[in-house]
Amino acid sequence: MDILLIAGLWLDASAWDDVVTALEELDHRPVALTLPGQGDGAVSATLDDQVAAVLAAVDAAPGKPMVVGHSAACTLAWLAADARPERIAKVALIGGFPSADGQPYADFFETKDGVMPFPGWGPFEGPDSVDLDAEARSRIASAAIPVPEGVAKGTVRLEDERRFDVPMLLVCPEFTAAQARGWIDAGDVPEVARTRQVDFVDIDSGHWPMTTRPVELARLLAAAATDV
Fold this sequence. Notes:
One of its GO terms (molecular function) is catalytic activity. The strands form 2 sheets. A 6-stranded parallel sheet has the order 2-1-3-4-7-8, with helices on both faces. The protein has a two-stranded antiparallel ribbon with strand order 5-6.
């Protein structure tokens, strides 16, 4: 199966390199996406531009792909399911949940000169970064690509309720599946609560398992792609 990989904020397609290798060894066809404004130098990119790039990859897949979103890009994966519910076999969300209609995409940190730079490790101390050593932290921070303001502050627009028919896998890294179920039951993630088929899987990592647990993550994604 084609597996489309969408990295979260400040990351480009290279964040998935080790996962791509492992997925290929498991006989899948991974495609790591370079998003407008996150790897192609387009500082003026918007959320609509990123959605269009994801949809182009969905449309180019020979069959129904599984779309994988990491962190904030969980919302991008879900926007693809909203726009192409009949073309997507499954969405897999790693370390995040899709925003609801009308919410900002990722307006989490201060923007400067039209971009949202990586804020340093302070906001991510604790479970998010517990498994990152100094070398990994330095590598991620030095490669971080400032996110265009038009992406971070873009408004999420969801229109087709057939998205709730697309099966969903929640990969739970810095939080557990039990915690995720609690947030869903409490009404904190309404898009997931309305999805008809949601599976959960834990992975013993921080927020960036593609860096610290790439082979294990690939095996989880491969299993999810096979079980469609």
